[in-house]
Amino acid sequence: MNLCRFLHACCAIAAAFALQTPLQANAQVDEAHARQVAVELGLLVNEATAAIGAVQNDINAGTGGDKVKPDALQAAFAARYAKAAGKPFDTKGDGLIGDTRRAFSSSLNDTLTRFQPQMSKGGQDAFVPAFFRAELLKRMNVQLKGKVQGYATNRDKELINADWSVDKVMKGSPLAPDVARMVNAGDSAHSVKRSGDRLMAYWPMKLGTACVACHARNGLAQKEGEFGGALVAEVWVK
Ligand code: HEC
């Protein structure tokens, strides 16, 4: 082999490594573990968001007091989680499921602490569940980059905040076209499926009375019982 071809071959090998390294770093878990992680993420984020939903009247009225302090909201989350999961919340656990619980726990604490003044002061729609969820997911996603990501989104025509469109929250994800199709169709079935090197879990949201009333104040005309967006988990698989 002449020098030129030798160098060329070296470059090709180096380039292949450069391409492969991040992919290998991302391929963390097998499909069975990925499913557990996805289900856990949904449970954690949905129950924490429900805990914030439960204090909306107090936040709106500015009467939150001790109920909107981080300790109380963490306890409210833990009670909901225990009921839904059938076991107490703890941050233990090996591998990615443990990492996900720990990233959630520290992100929950950060978010509640950061926004406590806003919740205590209160005022109409001063701290809505979707805003909380977006702040929580933002922090979790930074910690879990390349392993697990969570997204809350809705179809374009029913967005209150355009920042939560599928295109924006899932920028760069190979699952974005799938999720766009599902939310635009108002897909209201929970599903978990593998797609290439990703596992996707999808939890549709259903609009209740409080959701519709508050969204109406924010300019949306929706109906109770209808599709109200989705929470999506994306887990990298081997
Ligand atoms: C107290 C008011 C309030 C309640 C209650 C509420 N929402 Fe929202 N929701 C909002 C506001 C305001 C936004 C925009 C948040 C932002 O700008 O970050 C929003 C955003 C969202 C989003 C993100 C997409 C978008 O439109 O920006 C989803 C999904 C969503 N809400 C679903 C629900 C569902 C489902 C419920 C009931 C289970 C609910 N919301 C209850 C006020 C509320």
Brief overview:
By secondary structure, this protein is of the alpha+beta class. Helix content is 56%, strand content 13%. It has a 4-stranded antiparallel beta sheet with strand order 1-4-3-2.
Biggest sheet statistics: 4 strands, antiparallel
- The helical percent reads 55-70%
What does the overall shape look like? globular
Mean pLDDT: 91
For the secondary structure, the number of strands is 4
Bound molecules: heme C
Radius of gyration: 21 Å
Number of domains: 1
Total count of helical runs of at least 4 residues = 9
The SSE string, one letter per element, is HHHHHHEHHEEHE
Which percent band covers the strand fraction? 5-15%
Structural class: alpha+beta
Spatially, the strands of the biggest sheet line up as 1-4-3-2
Report the end-to-end length measured between terminal Cα atoms. 37 Å
Stretches with pLDDT under 50, minimum 5 residues: 13-24
Characteristic key phrases:
alpha+beta; binds heme C; 238 residues
Explain what the structure shows.
With 238 residues, this protein is of the alpha+beta class. It has one domain. It is 56% helix and 13% strand. The chain contains 9 helices and 4 strands. Strands 1-4-3-2 form a 4-stranded antiparallel β-sheet. Helix 2 crosses helix 4, helix 2 runs parallel beside helix 5 and helix 2 packs antiparallel against helix 6. The longest helix is centred in the middle third of the chain and has 27 residues. It is globular and about 50 Å long. Heme C (HEC) binds next to helix 6, helix 9 and strand 4.
